[in-house]
């Protein structure tokens, strides 16, 4: 017999319900870590600057009269954002929620429990936010039906070719890239993951320096200043679109790194002090996180100097040098590739430049994510006057994921 809404209770999780919910989802998601290590990691991250206190809350639907019978759960994290209306008015600060860890107890699946949970969550988070986002691993349609249409999820895959492989297809370069609908782009970016080691080396290693934890606060402050300047110019476009972006602040970047470090400590017994790279001229930098499960390096953000302080050619060269540093880091850990989400035009040309310079060592593939981590955004109240076509999600990069 199916459940009805009268059989369920929605609310913020108690401490006991949180322990139950985390253990439930860990049974499906912990690998390659043990369940105990997964639970330890989630407890550790709950105390992080980004998620401590009420900034991150876990919500549950449970069986009425049986509070330990958790049916579905999810987490919401409140984050600072910038908003520019595109009507000539100045940009403003606001808040948005990132929804993550949506999970249904296997006993209660295919009964609409997650949908019920998310509709109740909408009622809560709409009260103190402008919009909410989630990253779908369930395709485009499910969350769209609940008010979260999918946004652009273009990515660049810089794949390290094994020493023994002889290139058989054109390398991605300026005017020669593997674009999403071309035959070359159909090559699976994961097909090289078990290949022999790469012999990749940066073409000009002296152009970058390692970036460590101590560098983050100052660089994130500068990066936020850059973003605010960009949004000030967006406000003057008068395109009548709502431009939004999450702030690339230290808390957001560091949460990703802390998660990766915890995994490394548990899986490898060691961590790496290098969190990215910065050009020796100090003009641009990159931050990254190690994805130990997928054996890849995820670029969190590439920050290039503002127009007016450098030329386009200089920014492309900076991007190339930073991407080469990322590839060297990936090679060091035996990873198969570096992944960049939604690269802008200068980073895209930087990727192509890497492909040109390292034709026998790196294959650059541009494609669209269709199966996992699809960025989806819902405006507060899912107002009809704010359809998908009227919202521009700016700087939708790896650091936004949470």
Automatic annotation (TrEMBL):
- Low complexity composition bias: residue spans: 176-205
What is the protein's given name? Lysine acetyltransferase
Matching InterPro entries, A to Z? Acyl_CoA_acyltransferase (IPR016181), GNAT_dom (IPR000182), GNAT_LYC1-like (IPR055100), LAT (IPR053013)
* UniProt source species: Podospora fimiseda
Gene3D superfamilies of this UniProt entry? 3.40.630.30
- Disordered: where is this region? 164-206
Residue stretches making up the LYC1 C-terminal domain: 195-402
Ranges for domain N-acetyltransferase: 98-155
Known Pfam families for this protein?
Acetyltransf_10, GNAT_LYC1-like
**Care to name a GO molecular-function term for this sequence?**
acyltransferase activity, transferring groups other than amino-acyl groups
């Amino acid at each position: 017999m199916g459940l009805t809404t009268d059989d369920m209770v929605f609310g913020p999780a108690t401490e006991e319900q949180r322990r139950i919910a985390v253990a439930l989802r860990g049974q499906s998601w912990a690998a390659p870590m043990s369940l105990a290590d997964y639970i330890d990691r989630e407890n550790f991250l709950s105390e992080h600057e980004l998620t401590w206190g009420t900034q991150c809350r876990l919500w549950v639907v449970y069986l009425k009269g049986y509070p330990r019978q958790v049916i579905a759960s999810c987490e919401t994290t409140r984050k600072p954002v910038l908003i520019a209306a595109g009507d000539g008015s100045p940009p403003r600060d606001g808040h948005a929620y990132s929804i993550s860890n949506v999970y249904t107890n296997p006993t209660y699946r295919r009964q609409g429990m997650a949908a019920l949970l998310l509709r109740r969550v909408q009622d809560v988070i709409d009260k103190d936010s402008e919009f909410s986002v989630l990253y779908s691993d369930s395709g485009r349609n499910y969350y769209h039906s609940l008010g979260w249409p999918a946004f652009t999820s273009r990515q660049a895959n810089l794949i390290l070719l094994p020493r023994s492989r002889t290139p058989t297809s054109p390398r991605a370069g300026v005017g020669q890239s593997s674009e999403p609908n071309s035959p070359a782009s159909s090559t699976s970016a994961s097909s090289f993951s078990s290949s022999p080691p790469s012999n990749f080396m940066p073409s000009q290693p002296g152009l970058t320096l390692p970036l460590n934890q101590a560098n983050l606060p100052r660089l994130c402050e500068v990066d936020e200043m850059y973003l605010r300047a960009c949004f000030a110019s967006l406000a003057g476009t008068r395109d009548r679109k709502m431009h939004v972006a999450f702030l690339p602040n230290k808390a957001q970047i560091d949460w990703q790194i802390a998660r990766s470090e915890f995994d490394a400590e548990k899986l490898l017994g060691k961590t790496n002090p290098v969190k990215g790279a910065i050009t020796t001229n100090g003009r641009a930098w990159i931050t990254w996180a190690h994805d130990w499960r997928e054996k890849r390096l995820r670029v969190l953000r590439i920050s290039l100097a503002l127009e007016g302080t450098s030329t386009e050619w200089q920014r492309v060269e900076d991007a190339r040098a930073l991407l080469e540093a990322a590839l060297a880091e990936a090679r060091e850990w035996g990873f198969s590739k570096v992944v960049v989400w939604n690269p802008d035009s200068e980073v895209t040309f930087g990727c192509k430049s890497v492909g040109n310079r390292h034709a026998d060592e790196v294959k650059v593939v541009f494609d669209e994510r269709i199966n996992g981590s699809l960025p989806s955004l819902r405006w507060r109240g899912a107002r009809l006057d704010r359809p998908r076509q009227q919202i521009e999600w700016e700087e939708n990069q790896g650091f936004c994921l949470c």
